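Holo prediction — cytidine-5'-monophosphate.
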Amino acid sequence: HGLLGEVWDDEMSSNMLGSRLRKVVQNYQAMNKYGVEFSGPGGVSSRPKLSGPKLLCQIKENVEVQTLTSDLQPFSSLPWASQLPMSQLTSDLGPYRSCAVVSSAGSLRYSGLGKEIDSHDAVLRFNAAPTTDFEKDVGSKTTIRLINSQVMASDDHRFLSSSLYSSGALVAWDPAPFSADLSQWYNRTDYPIFTQYQRYRRLHPMQPFYILHPRFEWQIWQRIQDNMAEPIQRNPPSSGLLGTILMMSLCEVVHVYEFLPSRRKTELCHYYQRFYDAACTLGAYHPLLYEKNLVKRMNQGSDHDIYTHGRVTLPGFRQLNC
Ligand code: C5P
C-alpha cells in the first residue's frame, strides 16, 4: 500500500464493508421509514459519473437551505409561531470568507488542528461535540451548531441546561417524511423537536435558533442517490453533510475536517467519547458512505491534505460559475 492508498476512495460501496456492518446497512436499505418515492439508480452503468465541478453546480441548482419562519403555514396559525425566526438563516448569517466544518470523528483526537480550525471566520460544530478540554485538537470557536432532534430530546445531553449549546447560532433538524409536508411532519416527528425548541427558546430567548425545512435534507438525499450506482439507505443524510452544504451556502471557501478520515483514522466514534464503532465513520442508518464519495468527488484540495489534516476544501456556491 502506498501512503495515499489509505485516503477515501470515491467509489466506496457497501460491498467493501465488513460482514457485520454490511448486514446492518443492507437492513436499512430494505427499510423505507420515511416513504421515499424514488426509483433509485437506473442501472449500474447507465449513469455518467459527473466531474467535481458539474456535481457542485448540480447541488447548487437543486438544493436550497431553507429554514422555518414564523409566517409559514401551518406554524403561523400555532400559538408559539412567534418563537420562530422572522427571516431565513441565510439572510441573517454570513456571508463569511472562510469556514470550518468540524466533524466529530475520533480521528480529530491528537490532531492538533485547533489553531487552524479557529483561524476561520466561522466554525460549524455538530450535536454534543464539546470544545472545552479539546481546544488543541478542535479549537474553541463555535459560530453555528447543527443539532439533531435526538440530541434535543435525550436526557443525557441536557440540551435545555448545558452550556455546551449556548455559543453561536443553533440550527436543528429532524428526519421528516420524504414528502416534506409540514403538517404531516408536525404530527409525526422522529423526536419531539418542536416541544424542545419551544422550551429552549423560553429559556434562551436571545440566542438565534433555526429549524431546517425538511425539503433541505431530502433535496440533498436525492443528489446523493442520483450520483450513486447502487441504492442508498432511504434515510436522511448525516448532520455532517447537511452542515457542509449549509456552510457552502454561507461561505466563500469551506474546509471540512475529518469527514474523510486522515492517517489518524480510527474506530473511535467521537473525539469526545470512549466508544468504538466503525459505523460512525462508515454509516449504518445514514447513507454516510455515499455522502463521503460525493464529498471526495467535490474536493478541490489534495489527497495529501486529507491524509495529513483530514481536510477537504470545497468552494462556496457563490464562487461557482455554473
Ligand atoms: O455523530 P454526530 O452526527 O454527532 O457527528 C457529526 C457528523 O460527523 C456525523 O453526522 C458525520 O457526518 C461525521 N462523523 C464522521 N465520522 C465519525 C463521527 C462523525 O464522519 N466517526
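READOUT: DSSP finds 13 helices and seven strands in the chain.
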